[in-house]
Amino acid sequence: MERDIIIKPILSEKSYESIKDKKYSFVVAKDANKTEIKLEVERRFDVQVEKVNTMNCHGKLKRMGRSQGYTSDYKKAIVTLKKDSKGIKFFESLQ
Fold it and tell me: Which residues of the chain have pLDDT under 50?
């Protein structure tokens, strides 16, 4: 049984600024570790990963009228590529 490790890219102003330093942000599976994330990025995008930083992000409180609730928690990974590695084409086309 194969599971998705990389769920989606994070497209924000902060992540756009870090693209020039070869740092890319992704929402990943909550139970994925750094080694699994590194191998998946290298396999999927054909690049060389230098390091992976992860963080658990808690959902924000949202309200609609009187009712309120929290958005889903997620895990965020910031992947840094090696200096001699090529960039990820998906992110390069956004600049």
Answer: 1
Reduce the DSSP state of residue 74 to 3 states and report it. Answer: strand
DSSP letter for each residue of 42-70 = HHHH---EEEEEEEEEPPPEEEETTEEEE
Give the Cα separation of 27 and 67 in Å (integer): 27
Radius of gyration of the chain (CA): 15
Longest dimension (CA), the chain: 53
Place of tokens 């690049």: 47
The chain-wide mean pLDDT, for the chain, equals 93
* Listed residue (70, 68, 50) closest to 60, CA to CA: 70
